Amino acid sequence: MSGDHHSTDESGPAARVKALEAILTEKGLIDSAAIDAIVDMYETRVGPRNGARVVAKAWTDPAYRKRLLADATKAVAELGLAGPEGGHLVAVENTDRVHNLVVCTLCSCYPWPVLGLPPVWYKSFAYRSRAVSDPRGVLADFGLELPREVEVRVWDSSAEIRYLVIPQRPKGTERMSEDTLAEIVTRDSMVGVAKVEAPRR
Amino acid sequence: MSSTNTALNGLIEAARLDAEHVFSAPWEARAFAMALNLSEAGHFTWDEFRERLIAEVRASDRIRARDGTSDHGEYYDHFLRALEKLLEEKGLAPNH
User: Fold this and answer.
1) Is the entire prediction scored with pTM above 0.80?
2) Interface pTM (ipTM) of the complex?
């Protein structure tokens, strides 16, 4: 018998989830409308656009940047961002000398209210197992080569602390508005695996 | 090392192609939402769930580090297994 890993109709994950949902619904523990609402929320509304607003504000408002670095949980709440997995948020800032990279080596801890749910690579064995031991190698995989004099700091997320990277504001964006800046801030830059690029003219 | 690099490169490629897609199949979204819904309703804490998730991920990492296989499944397979085990422990949805 070697049926353990076979995804037959009955043992495949889709069927198990369906069965679970049926049992839990029958017991009155969940209702499908609430499940639909959560799916919709995390597929369309909670995502990295939220974090991009935070970064753009920090770039354009020095007082906000200070508050963000001092207490990120409070500072993002000013923009109405809070919720599950946003408990203790720490903002770390990239500079000419320091580049920050975020990982969760144990599973998938990630600051949901500002970045939404983590992408597949963030949860992968390859990323989790190498970000701490070989951060420059990982960054190179993402196409980011940093000068040797730049210190790379790796932050391992946990149930207690989540991190948001404030990427460097690219040169040539001095005249852009906060809203326009928010459009160029990417998810990857807020995890620390990419830089923000100035839009090409 | 090169096989790990290739693995990560493949994922990066996938991430670029489908930038903000958080679930790769509808069942992943349902499993995630059920877990969150149940925890918000107080049937278990998210920390309790995370402990089970970490254990599943660790078991899978061990197999992968030893054999280089992903027989233990991907992230949401671990997620679902953790949820099933926790529900069974709590007597909320016994396996049968």
Assistant:
1) yes
2) 0.85
